[in-house]
Structures are given as C-alpha cells and as structure tokens.
Amino acid sequence: MLMTMSEKILAKASNKSSSEAGEIVMGEIDVAMTHDLTGPLSVESFEKIGTDKVWDPNKIVIPFDHQVPADSLDAANNHIILREFVKKQEIKNFYDVNQGVCHQILPEFGHVVPGEVIVGTDSHTCTHGALGAFATGIGSTDMAMVFSTGKLWFKVPETIRFNIEGQLKENVYAKDVIVNIIGKVGADGATYKVCEFAGNTVSDMSVSDRMVLCNMAVEMGGKTGLVEPDEKTLNYIETRSNKPYEVFKTDLGAPSLETIEIDVSNLEPQVACPHNVDNVKPVSEIDKEIDQVFLGSCTNGRISDLREAAQILKGNKIANRVRMLVIPASKEVYTKALDEGLINIFVESGALVCNPCCGPCLGGHVGLIGPGEVSLSTSNRNFKGRQGSPEGEVYLSSAAVAAYSAIKGRIESI
Fold first, then answer.
1. Cβ pair 330, 413 in contact under 8 A
2. Nearest 5 degrees, angle CA 403-CA 406-CA 411?
3. 414 domain residue, yes or no
4. At 374, which helix (H) or strand (E)?
5. Number of domains, the chain
6. What is catalysed by this protein (predicted)?
7. What does the pLDDT read at residue 96?
C-alpha cells in the first residue's frame, strides 16, 4: 500500500502495518511537551483524572519560555504549579527560565528524531516536522490524557506536498518562501492537512531554514509540517541525540497526496500585512513607517537570523523613532551570538537585547506595542492584538528585512 510520511508514522505509532487518510487511530506518543503558559491547565486536568503517576516521566518535556522571568503574579504562580508537578512526578526534562523557546530547545537537547509522534500544548509544535517527526499542537486537556495514558486519538490527515524549486535570490530567505505560500493557499487552505515541503529549494536549505517552513504550516491550517529526512537531518540528529529513530519517506503515488508546484526563482522579500498571515505583499509594494522591530521567536530567532541581521546592522544605527528588540531563541543561540560578537553589534546599533524567551510574540510579555503603533516582527502571527494593543498593527518579515527596516525607520528591503 502506498502511503505518505504521516500515514507511515501514524501506522507505526498505532502498531499497524498501514494507515490511510480519514482513519481514526490511537497513537502512542514519543514526546509530550507543555510550557509555562499552557502547562498549569494540563496539570489541573491531569489531577482531575485521578491518575497518580504520569505514564513516562522521561518522555515529558517542560520548558519555561512564554513569561520568563515571571512578569506578573499569575505567571509566577504558574511557574510554581509546574515546578511542584515536575518534582512530584519526577519529570526528567525540565528547563527553567534560562534555556529559551520550547520549539528551539527540544531539537537542541535531542528530544526530536525522525519517525516519532510529538505533541505539545502549543500550535507551533509543528516546527519539529523539519526533522521528519509527526509533530502537532494539542489542547491542554488532551495533554492531561497523554500524561495519564501516553496515547492519543488522531484522524490520519491528507497531505499537500509543496514541491519548491528554484534558487533563491540574494536577501530572500525561507521566511519569504513560506509567507508567499501562505499568501497563495490562504489561512485555511491546508486545514487539517500535512504540509510537506520538498524540492531542490528545500534540499538546499539548512535544518534551521526547514524549521521556518514547518513552523508556519499551522498558519495555513496545517495539522503539521514535514520535511523528508536527508543527510543534513541525520547529521543534525546525530550530534544532538542518542535516541533510536526510523526514517520515513512519502510514496509519490499515495492516494491521499496532493502536489502543488512552487517556483521561487523570481521571489522577492515578502511581508505579511495586518491583520492576517495570508495578507501577503512583496516588500516593494509597502510604504509604512514603523515604531518597533522584533527580531526573535521560534520562527526566526536562530543564530542564522541573528547573523543576517547583524551583518546589516553593523556600523549602522537604528532610526531614532524606532525601538528594536533582539531576543535569541535559546541560551545556545545567545551564547553563540556572544562568542561571535553579534550582541555587541546589536547594542552598538541601538537595539535592546533580551533574555531567551518568546518575548512580545504572544502579546504577554516584554515589548508590547501601544494604540496606533506599528511592529515589524520576525515571528509567525500578526492577528489584531497579538503583540499588544488591538489598535496597533503587526507586519511579519524575514530577519534581513527587519534589520534593514530598523535602520530606515520604515518597511524596506536592501
């Protein structure tokens, strides 16, 4: 039977020889992640179930990343709830306030390998599909059942395979590719489908760039994003993890597979405009002054993003009316940026460098915008009120466009 990657992974997880789109399966979970914002509700629901012990304390990962350090009494209380849960349940993989964004540190610490089923109480858990895992976001109450049983029901999804071809122009990046695709497909164009990214353009991308693609699959309604593991994937895995893994690839004749051809040869930098991620325009068509630039998040807070931005900012000053926040996605990224002198470049240009965390991405921590203000962000969502006031505006771009715009005081590209 011809199957897609996701069908093969879910068949394995449900101890079946095959699965097909539309089928309901009970899958065994390999990694379950919750964080400081959604975790307390999972803990509360777990305690209501009445199970004394979690199914496997070695397979649960709990990072603090959304409101760290605690910015309110509620946040501090959430941290206390999870610390007590970690201690009581003897959770082995607990990352306190100094490690970074969950979707960055899970791969860094070797929790993600090909062929696994990974669930997280965060919609951007789909990021981990870049390493060939079926990774998806679930609700906090669903996570309580995972904590208790180690299993979860799944409806096996259909797959859209985006076959991306062409060499990217200078100053065009993975962020531009995925934003352009979302603009074409629409915010609901891939609802409950696997968004599989393939083609020569993807083969040429680094693992970090592939994570950008998979991270934003959910912004077109996708259940997850996936990239077939290759030599780059396995090299990354083998330096990070000692877990066993199995590589799955899509059979191109699978009945549930739809293929969309994408040519990016002539693509220019793209920007998602307020207030929806699929409201996409080329940067050349935008004329907008900005108040704030946010460089960071689980989409574009990696070392490659910081390098791109620093190269543009070096020797330049951020525009007087603009404030720029730089938030590395993890402690590892922060340390590399320190070692390479990138932090000095950011500070000398006038940027504010913050601790590794989600920052203003979720509108719940540092760097919120006020009424009438405009934010240019390298994150993944620009919904009304996402980064502060519902009367503000959020535009999304690559790290390069964000850095150059910070200098110019308006949305522009080199």
1. no
2. 95
3. no
4. strand 374-377
5. 2
6. (2R,3S)-3-isopropylmalate = (2S)-2-isopropylmalate
7. 87
Band (pLDDT 50/70/90 cuts) for residue 67 is: confident
Residue ranges for the known binding site are 298, 358, 361
Note whether 239 and 282 are same-domain residues: no
Helices (H), 68-221: 73-89, 102-108, 140-149, 174-185, 200-204, 207-215
pLDDT band, very low/low/confident/very high, at 389 (cuts 50, 70, 90): confident
Which of 216, 231, 261 corresponds to the end of one domain? Answer: 261
Tokens 């199914």 identify what position? Answer: 55
Please identify, among 261, 279, 306, the residue that sits at the C-terminal boundary of a domain.
Answer: 261
Is the Cβ–Cβ distance between 207 and 214 less than 8 Å? no
Predicted structure pTM score: 0.93
- 148: tokens are 């208790």
Secondary structure E strands in 199-251: 224-226
**DSSP per residue, 10-62:** HHHHTT-S---TT-EEEEEPSEEE--TTTHHHHHHHHHHHT-SS-S-TTSEEE
Which letter, b or e, does each residue of 56-83 get, where b requires 16 or more Cβ atoms within 10 Å of its Cβ?
Answer: eeebbbbbbbbbbebeeeebeebbebbb
Binding residues for [4Fe-4S] cluster: 298, 358, 361
- The neighbouring-strand residues paired with 100 are 330
Q: What is the helix (H) or strand (E) element at residue 282, kind and residue range?
A: strand 280-282
Strand order in the sheet with 134-137: 93-95, 60-63, 31-33, 117-120, 134-137
Regarding whether 108 and 192 lie in a shared domain, the answer is: yes
Which residue, among 98, 259, 287, 100, has the nearest Cα to 193 in the 3D structure?
A: 259
DSSP H/E element including 323: strand 323-327
Residue 156 C-alpha from the chain's centroid: 22
What's the CA gap between 333 and 339, in Å, rounded?
Answer: 10
Q: Could you tell me the pLDDT band of residue 217, with boundaries at 50, 70 and 90?
A: very high
Residue 98: how many CA atoms within 13 Å on its side-chain side?
1
Which residues span the domain enclosing 71?
5-261
Residue 61 dihedral angles phi and psi, to the nearest 5°: -125, 125
pLDDT in tens, 342-353: 999 999 999 999
Per-residue pLDDT of 279-311, as tens digits, reads: 999 999 998 999 999 999 999 999 999 999 999
Number of other CB atoms surrounding residue 290 within 10 Å: 26
